[in-house]
Protein: Kunitz-type protease inhibitor 1-like protein
Amino acid sequence: MKARTVRMFYVMLFCFTQFLSTRVGAVDPACQEPPTETGSCRALIPITVFKNGQCVKVIWGGCEETKNKFESMADCKEKCLK
Structure:
């Protein structure tokens, strides 16, 4: 009986982790790109990027752009966190 309980625990744990992996993380392809860095340009443009699993505000210099750049925190969360 104990082996069956342990096996059931691992099955449930596997199912739960599969569920979480479909719910948490980037959904928009832009969220999976490297975040836009400050770069070598001198503009001081406040933007939001998706970095390390969360949306963070950064100052962008205006160059070396990727698609991982959002106008607002709400826009980033809507596209990258579901």
Summary: The mean pLDDT is 82. The chain has one domain: 2-80. Helices lie at 2-23, 73-80. The chain has two helices and two strands.
